[in-house]
Specification:
It is a single chain. The chain is an all-alpha fold. It has a single domain, classed as MetI-like fold. It is built from 13 helices and no strands. Helix 2 crosses helix 6, helix 2 runs parallel beside helix 12 and helix 11 runs antiparallel to helix 12. The two termini are 43 Å apart. The C terminus is likely disordered.
């Protein structure tokens, strides 16, 4: 069954072949294919984190551009202090405080899981678009947005600040463009670090936010990995780690290629050398 009667080199070749064809074997504890365990868990993680990351990238980047254009304003000061505070606070701590306030204190939202124990939806639409799912979704979504908002806001702000004295903005100012039009042009030229960071962060999504998924008992790939480690379910652990590593490598390469495409002055080879260093 496991090929242990074959020579070691044959076992290794079969292992590599199975790895790259996503044949991860049978779970020791659940006695079913590992793919049936990892697949739904990975989908749950992406449904939780990808909309949160997209929302954070859009809202925080726009806020950061506006804050950078209005340096010294109350908006910039409040934005930097607030987002830095939540970025410096571990995400599981933010999640615990949200649970204490909105779940156990006010009783407005459920405290754990992706759906109520009595719920038994059938199909993707009934599972992920129901009111019961949205109630469970709000708190982990909010914790994720608060945690990552500081990164995008500061990147966008710093990029706009660096370009405020650029010659192209001086030319636009001389042509009589309004402040908002100038901000729009400065913002477009500030997208490069945001795009590359978004690509890198998307690769990290496949790891899940393990502490967040544990706090909210969210059935994602991070929580699945923790349970597999505790149960010494080695095939599931290997599969989860392999998918996480593969996603990070692919998105790192995507970020390098995107950087070279967006900035014609940078050669793809130079970006790759910098990344490997």
């Amino acid at each position: 069954m496991y090929g242990l009667d074959e020579p070691v080199w044959v076992q290794y070749l079969k292992y590599v072949q199975n790895l790259f064809t996503f044949q991860f074997g049978i779970s020791i504890t659940q006695q079913r294919p590992v793919g049936e365990i990892i697949g739904p868990a990975l989908l749950n993680t992406l449904i939780l984190l990808l909309p949160a990351l997209i929302t954070t990238a859009i809202v925080s980047s726009l806020a950061g551009m506006y804050a950078g254009w209005n340096r010294g304003s109350w908006f910039e000061q409040i934005g930097i202090i607030t987002t830095t505070f939540f970025r410096a606070t571990p995400i599981f701590v933010t999640g615990i405080f949200l649970l204490i306030f909105f779940s156990y204190g006010l009783g407005w939202l459920p405290a754990f899981g992706m759906r109520s124990p009595v719920a038994n939806p059938e199909g993707i639409i009934a599972t992920y678009l129901s009111l019961d799912f949205l109630k469970h979704y709000i708190l982990p979504f909010t914790a994720t947005v608060l945690f990552y908002s500081g990164d995008f806001l500061m990147l966008a702000r710093n990029s706009v600040v660096e370009r405020m004295g650029s010659e192209f903005l001086t030319l636009h100012r001389a042509k009589g463009l309004s402040d908002m039009e100038q901000l729009g042009r400065a913002g477009r030229n500030s997208l490069l670090p945001l795009v590359t960071y978004f690509a890198l962060r998307t690769g990290m999504l496949f790891q899940g936010v393990i502490t967040l998924e544990v706090v909210f008992a969210w059935p994602g790939i991070g929580r699945t990995l923790v349970q597999a480690i505790l149960n010494q379910d080695y095939p599931t652990v290997q599969a989860a780690v392999f998918i996480m590593a593969l996603a990070v490598i692919i998105m790192n390469l995507t970020a390098d290629v995107a950087y070279a495409r967006l900035d014609p002055t940078v050669e793809a080879g130079d970006v790759w050398c910098q990344a490997t260093q």
